[in-house]
Amino acid sequence: MERDIYWKAVSERDERFNGAFYYGVNSTRIYCKPSCGAKTPNRENVRYFGDCVSAEGAGFRACKRCRPESIKPDPSTEAVIRSCRILEASSDISLGDLGERVGLSPAHLQKLFKEIVGVSPRKYGESVRMNHFREGIRTGSEVTEAMYDAGYGSSSRLYENVSDKLGMTPATYKKGGEGMEIEYTVADCELGKILVARSKKGICAVNFGDTGEDLDKGLMKEFPKAEISKNDGALKQYLEAILENLKGNRKRLVLPLDLQATSFQLRVWEALREIPYGETVSYAEIAKKLGNPNAVRAVAGACAANRVALVIPCHRVVKSNGDLSGYKWGKERKKRLLENEKAER
Ligand SMILES: [Zn+2]
C-alpha cells in the first residue's frame, strides 16, 4: 500500500513528498527526492528509504541534480505518511485517535489525507485489511484465519466487502484462480482474433490477439491455477453481444463481470463505463472526476490493467492533447475502434 503511494509520488514527481521519503535506483546506485526531474526509473529497480542516511548506508549516492540531502520534509505530508503507517499496523483506529497521534485535527487530517493519498483514512484502512486478507489467502492460510488476521469481525461483513471490491468470492480467489472454472471461446473479428472468457460469476477476460494460440496462452498465464476449458456454446451469447458492439449495433455493453481489482482500479473502471460510445475523455479528466487531479499516471495504470476489452472501454481514454496514447491490445486497434465508433455514432 505505502509502496503504491510512494511509487505514485515518484512517477508523478509529486513535490509534496519531498523529505517524506527518498528513492534509490538499483541500476545507477543513485538516490533522489520524489520530485527529481530525472527520467522516471523502472518500478522494479526502485528502493525506498525513510531518510538520506539509510540510503547512503545501503550504498546509494545522492543525485547531483535534485540534491536530496538538502531538503526539509513537508510536515503535513509527513503526518499523512505517518497516518498510513499507523493504519497499516491497526487498520480500525478511529479518525479522532489517528489525528491525535499525528497532531492534526480529524477534519484537517481527513482533508490532507484525501488530497495526498486519494482516498479517506477509513477507505485506506479498508484497503489495508483487504490486502492483508488477500495475502493471507495467497500464502495459503485458511479463509477464516485470513479473515480474522485481517481484522474482519464476522464473515458476512467480509463477504459483503469481497463481492463488492474483488468481484470474486474468497474460495475462488485462492491461489491464482485455483478452484475457479473458466470457460472461453475464440473467434474472428475485424480486429484479428478475440477471446471471451467467463467464470461462474461473469466475464473475467476479453482479449484481442493475432492468433488463437497467443490468446490461449495469455489466458493460462492470467489464471495459472484455474480449470480452463474451451466452450464455444457457453460463451455464444456474450460473444455475440461483444461482436455486435464492435460492429456498432449495440452501443451499450452491460455484461456481468468477475474481476479482481484494487478499489482504485474499480473506481477508474466504473468511470470508464460511463464514457458514451464514440466519445473520448482524457486520463486527466478521469483523474479529476475521481477527485484526485494528480492521479493521471495512476489512471493510465488502471486502464492498462483492464482485463476486459470493450466491456470496460479503456480505449476511450486518450491524452489531454488528443494523442491516442497506448492500448493494452495495440495502439492500431485502439485507433480503429475509435474510428469505427465515431463513424457509427
Ligand atoms: Zn535526482
Description of the structure:
Among the domains are: 2-70, 3-Layer(aba) Sandwich (DNA Methylphosphotriester Repair Domain); 181-247, Double Stranded RNA Binding Domain; 263-344, Arc Repressor Mutant, subunit A (Orthogonal Bundle), CATH 1.10.10. It is an alpha/beta fold and 345 residues long. The protein contains 15 helices and ten strands. Helix 4 crosses helix 5 (106-117), helix 6 packs antiparallel against helix 7 (143-149) and helix 13 (283-289) packs across helix 14 (296-304). The longest helix is centred in the middle third of the chain and has 18 residues, at 121-138. Residues 32, 36, 38, 63, 65-66 line the site of zinc ion. The site of zinc ion has 6 residues, from loops.
Topology:
Layout: H1 2-11, E1 22-25, E2 30-32, E3 46-49, H2 52-57, E4 61-62, H3 75-89, H4 95-102, H5 106-117, H6 121-138, H7 143-149, H8 155-165, H9 170-177, E5 181-189, E6 192-198, E7 203-209, H10 212-222, E8 227-230, H11 232-247, H12 263-273, E9 281-282, H13 283-289, H14 296-304, E10 317-318, H15 331-344
Parallel strand pairs: 2-4, 5-8, 9-10
Antiparallel strand pairs: 1-2, 1-3, 5-6, 6-7
This protein binds zinc ion.
